[in-house]
Design brief:
Layout: E1 4-12, H1 19-27, E2 34-35, E3 48-49, H2 63-68, H3 71-87, E4 98-103, H4 109-122, H5 131-135, H6 139-148, E5 154-155, H7 163-176, E6 182-189, H8 194-202, E7 232-240, H9 241-246, E8 253-262, H10 275-288, E9 297-299, H11 306-320, E10 328-330, H12 333-336, H13 343-357, E11 359-360, E12 383-384, E13 389-396, E14 400-407
Helix pairs in contact: 3-6, 7-13, 10-11
C-alpha cells in the first residue's frame, strides 16, 4: 500500500468561497445561516438555510453554460479549480494518471423540479435535452474531469450525507493500490430547493427556528431542534507520496485510514447506541494502524438532530473508552449547516486545516450541555491544539457510514 498525501484544498461553502475565507469565518465562530433567498418560502415551515453567498462562476464558464449548468456542478468546478491551483499539479501533463472522485448525494433536484413543471405545462417537448445529463449525480465528477483533463478513474459515490467522505476514501484506496498516482476528490451538493426543503420538513428533520437563524444549528446542544440545510463543495487533491515529492509539492497532511460500515437498521435513523458508527470508526483506526489514544481531534458528523448527535456521542464512547474524555470534538455544521453530500468534503478540508495550522474549530451555539452528549465539543471558541491525528465522520440515510483518518505529515 502506497502512502497518500494531501497537496491541495478547495472550498466553496456558506462560510466562504475559498479555503482561507471559509477557515477565517469558521475560526471566528460565525454562523452563516440566514433566510432562504433561492425560492419563496411563504408556505414553508422552514424558511432558513446556510446558502453559498456571492458565488460567481464566470471565471469557469461562459454565461450560456452558467444558465444551463446546475449549481452543484458549478460549485464542484470552483472547488476543484482552487484545489488544483493550490497543489500546482499539472493536470494536462499528468492527466492519464489523475483520477476524479466527487461524491454527490441528490444531484440536480432543482432541474428535476423545473422540468416537471415544463412537462406538465407544455408537454414532453418542453423538457430540455440537458435534463438527464445534468441531473445525474456523477456529472459533477464528469464535468470536473473534462475541464481539467483527468483521464484516470472517474467515480461518484452517492451515499447520502456520507458521499463526500466516501469520495475521498475511495480515491485514497485507488491511489494506495496503484490505480492512479493522484486524484481530485471530495463532495458537492446544492439542493436548497422547494421540493428538498418540503421533503425534509415532512420528515420533521429541519429546524424551524426562523426568527433566530444564526442560532438554529446547534450540534450537541440539549435544545437542538433539527438540522439546517447547507450547500457547497469541498475538494482535496490527493497524491501518492513519491509522485508528490518528485514534483516538489507542498504536503498539508497525510491520509492514513478509511473505514466504512452499514447499520442495516432503518431508512433514516441511526442504529441504537451508534453501533454502526462505532464499527466504522474502529475500522478506520484499524486501517490506519492507530490506537484510539493517538487521536486528538474528531470533526464529528454532528447534524444538530436529537438522535444523531446522541448516538454519535455514544459511538465515540464505545470506541475510545476513557480517552473520549480527552478528545477535542467539534461539529462545524453549526456554522455551515448540513451540506448533505458535500459535508464530508467540506469537513475533510477543515480537518486538514486543523492538522496543518494546529487549531481546531469550535462547535458554535453550544450553550446547554446534554447528558447524552458528555464530551468536550469545543464550545463556541476555536482552540490552539497540536493535532497529530484526526478523524472526520460522515453518516448517511440508509445506514451508510464513513470515516477518514488524517495525520500530520512526517517525511
Amino acid at each position: 500500500m502506497r502512502r497518500v498525501v494531501v497537496t491541495g484544498l478547495g472550498l466553496v461553502a456558506p462560510t466562504g468561497n475559498n479555503v482561507k475565507e471559509s477557515w477565517d469565518v469558521l475560526l471566528a465562530g460565525r454562523s452563516c445561516v440566514g433566510p432562504i433567498t433561492q425560492f419563496d418560502t411563504t408556505n414553508f415551515p422552514t424558511k432558513i438555510a446556510a446558502e453559498v453567498k456571492n458565488f460567481d462562476a464566470s471565471s469557469l464558464m461562459d454565461a450560456k453554460e452558467i444558465r444551463r449548468t446546475p449549481r452543484f456542478i458549478q460549485l464542484a468546478l470552483a472547488a476543484a479549480h482552487e484545489a488544483l491551483q493550490m497543489s500546482g499539479l499539472d493536470s494536462e501533463k499528468y492527466g492519464d494518471h489523475i483520477g476524479c472522485s466527487v461524491g454527490v448525494g441528490m444531484g440536480g433536484m432543482l432541474l428535476t423540479e423545473e422540468n416537471c413543471q415544463a412537462l406538465n405545462s407544455g408537454g414532453p417537448k418542453r423538457v430540455t435535452p440537458f435534463y438527464i445529463p445534468y441531473t445525474i449525480a456523477n456529472m459533477a465528477a464528469g464535468m470536473v474531469s473534462m475541464k481539467y483533463h483527468l483521464r484516470g478513474p472517474n467515480i461518484c459515490p452517492t451515499t447520502a450525507c456520507a458521499s463526500g467522505t466516501h469520495g475521498i476514501g475511495e480515491a485514497f484506496n485507488l491511489i494506495a493500490k496503484g490505480s492512479c498516482n493522484a486524484a481530485v476528490a471530495g463532495g458537492a451538493e446544492s439542493v436548497v430547493s422547494p421540493l428538498a426543503v418540503a421533503g425534509f420538513n415532512s420528515m420533521k428533520a429541519l429546524s424551524t427556528e426562523n426568527e433566530s437563524p444564526e442560532t438554529a444549528s446547534k450540534p450537541f446542544d440539549k435544545n437542538r431542534t433539527g438540522f439546517v440545510m447547507g450547500e457547497g463543495a469541498g475538494i482535496l487533491v490527493l497524491e501518492e507520496l513519491e509522485f508528490a515529492r518528485k514534483r516538489g509539492a507542498t504536503i498539508y497532511a497525510e491520509v492514513v485510514g478509511f473505514g466504512l460500515s452499514g447499520d442495516a437498521y432503518h431508512l433514516t435513523a441511526p442504529a441504537p447506541g451508534g453501533e454502526g458508527a462505532a464499527r466504522c470508526m474502529a475500522a478506520t483506526l484499524k486501517d490506519a494502524k492507530l490506537n484510539p489514544e493517538q487521536i486528538t481531534y474528531i470533526n464529528a458528523h454532528g447534524t444538530s438532530t436529537k438522535m444523531n448527535d446522541a448516538y454519535e456521542s455514544a459511538a465515540i464512547g464505545t470506541v475510545f473508552g476513557n480517552h473520549a474524555k480527552k478528545l477535542a470534538i467539534s461539529s462545524t455544521k453549526g456554522a455551515t449547516g448540513h451540506c448533505l453530500g458535500a459535508a464530508g468534503g467540506v469537513e475533510a478540508v477543515f480537518s486538514v486545516q486543523s492538522i496543518y495550522y494546529g487549531v481546531v474549530p469550535p462547535t458554535i451555539n453550544y450553550t446547554t450541555p446534554d447528558p447524552e452528549c458528555p464530551w468536550d465539543y469545543i464550545p463556541n471558541e476555536a482552540r490552539e491544539l497540536s493535532v497529530p491525528f484526526a478523524l472526520s465522520n460522515s453518516f448517511g440515510f440508509g445506514g451508510t457510514n464513513a470515516s477518514l483518518a488524517f495525520a500530520k505529515f512526517k517525511g
